[in-house]
Prior knowledge:
Layout: H1 12-28, E1 33-36, H2 40-54, E2 58-63, E3 67-75, E4 79-87, E5 95-99, H3 102-126
Antiparallel strand pairs: 1-5, 2-3, 3-4, 4-5
Amino acid sequence: MPFLTTQRSENPNDWIPIIKRCLWQVTYRVLGQISIHCPIDVCSKAVEKICEEEKIGKYEWLIPRRVMVWYDIPIDHAMKIHCYVWGSPLLRRNTVFTRIGFWRMYMLESFIKAVGSPLTVLDRFLGK
């Protein structure tokens, strides 16, 4: 039996419909994150085309060739989301979309609550 692997296109135009569908998933998922089997260089070119040709949001690179921010992405006139789009240009395996807001809500707020509880106890002890 020959070694089987996923065959994928390197043409950004082929990925545009898939990326648009991913926006729905990253919007409604609790963790706000989705990964697709597309290298970051191909995915970023598709995002650039979506922004420039279809006027769906804007993008800028945070770390060139690795992490971009795609912001003002309209979701059916009901809302706009913002995403990190990131991946490894060396491995060229997957690209991850992370909705901005997830980390603030779950990580930062959890940290603040965890730190805040002992501070509240300390305030009571000190009589403040």
